[in-house]
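Design a sequence for this backbone.
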């Protein structure tokens, strides 16, 4: 826990669907805030290449490891950017509580894009190393499951 005289670090929860611009924003925050940026897809691509099935099977483990890194960094006073999507309020609430327990602030950064914009962006990144392919069926299913942040979730 940080003492009261030290600037409180910020945990940024980057929230949005694939193709909404999450990683672009996460990289910007990383640079502007000199923050630790954690993006599971980058680690998963390094470990499994384009093998999405294997990557998906290990996503929870990678996110668990990334949270350990994030918690240590926040405890040392560094800002952290979690580029995870945060599709549900329950998940966002969980990480807000975790950050608070470490003496950190939380900011939810929500990136909204229309279905047409998402399709266009996802099509443009097909075949690019480091970008997993997202099918139309997945995009529809994920859009249906996604819970946009409520106005009271800004901090």
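Sequence:
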């Amino acid at each position: 826990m940080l003492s009261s005289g030290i600037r409180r670090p910020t945990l940024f929860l980057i929230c949005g669907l694939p193709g909404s611009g999450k990683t672009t924003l996460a990289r910007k925050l990383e640079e502007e805030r000199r923050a630790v940026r954690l993006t599971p897809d980058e680690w998963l691509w390094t470990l499994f290449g384009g093998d999405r099935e294997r990557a998906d099977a290990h996503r929870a483990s990678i996110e668990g490891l990334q949270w350990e890194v994030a918690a240590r960094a926040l405890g040392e006073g560094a800002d952290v950017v979690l580029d995870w999507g945060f599709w549900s309020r329950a998940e966002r609430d969980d990480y807000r509580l975790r950050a608070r327990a470490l003496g950190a602030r939380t900011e939810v950064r929500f990136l909204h894009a229309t279905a047409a914009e998402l399709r266009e962006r996802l099509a443009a990144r097909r075949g690019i190393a480091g970008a997993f392919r997202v099918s139309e069926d997945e995009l529809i299913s994920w859009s249906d499951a996604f819970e946009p942040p409520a106005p009271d979730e800004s901090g």
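The helical segments are 22-33, 40-48, 52-75, 89-101, 115-124, 136-145.
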